[in-house]
């Protein structure tokens, strides 16, 4: 038995024993990505803080998430890894996705991509989102659909992509500034 599965078992063993905990984790693992997305929709439209800066964060977050998930998909097509429940007896709390690859975790990658983009400019809010991204990673193991290395790899890919895009931001920032100006003009004409 490898270390990856031992850590998986150490987390998954708590599933199925407390209905409130189980339902909370299932809700978060299913709807967490939607909650992350709604936060960034709010950030785009809020008048709290610098509106142009908020929108730039949203555009960076979207870009980092899309590139991260794209890399995940390439890895999934190149290296198929079965979900834990296919090869092991595990406690499942969500529907089985037999044909879906386990490696890497898209939920984890996407949530870390968004959280890292926010953390870059807004440390406090970003730190909160990073905690939620970590909880997303744990939830995927808890419900029985990912191994620890699946979620760690998803988070690592998000970290590398976020670093590279932020490091090379001068290449795409002019496009983002143009998009923000376009939306700002449209918004002022609509009022």
From TrEMBL:
Residues 57-166 form the Phosphatidic acid phosphatase type 2/haloperoxidase domain. It comes from the Bacteria. InterPro entries: PAP2/HPO, PAP2/HPO_sf. The chain crosses the membrane at residues 25-45, 57-75, 103-120, 127-145, 151-167. Keywords: Membrane, Transmembrane, Transmembrane helix. SMART domains: acidPPc (SM00014). The keyword Metal-binding does not apply. Pfam families: PAP2. The keyword Membrane applies. This is Undecaprenyl-diphosphatase. It comes from Sporosarcina newyorkensis. The lineage of its organism: Bacteria, Bacillati, Bacillota, Bacilli, Bacillales.
């Amino acid at each position: 038995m490898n270390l990856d599965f031992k850590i998986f078992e150490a987390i998954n063993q708590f599933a199925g024993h407390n209905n409130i905990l189980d339902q909370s984790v299932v809700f978060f693992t299913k709807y967490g990505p939607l909650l992350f997305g709604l936060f960034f929709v709010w950030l785009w439209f809020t008048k709290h803080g610098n509106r142009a800066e908020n929108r730039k964060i949203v555009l960076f977050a979207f870009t980092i998430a899309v590139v991260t998930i794209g890399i995940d998909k390439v890895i999934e097509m190149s290296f198929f890894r079965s979900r834990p429940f296919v090869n092991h007896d595990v406690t499942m709390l969500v529907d089985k996705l037999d044909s879906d690859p386990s490696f890497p975790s898209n939920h984890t990658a996407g949530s870390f991509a968004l959280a890292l983009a926010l953390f870059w400019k807004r440390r406090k809010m970003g730190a909160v989102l990073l905690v939620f991204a970590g909880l997303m990673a744990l939830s995927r193991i808890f419900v029985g659909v990912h191994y620890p290395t699946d979620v760690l790899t998803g988070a690592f890919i998000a970290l590398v992509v976020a670093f590279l895009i932020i490091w090379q931001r001068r290449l795409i920032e002019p496009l983002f500034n143009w998009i923000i100006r376009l939306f700002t003009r449209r918004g002022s004409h609509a009022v």
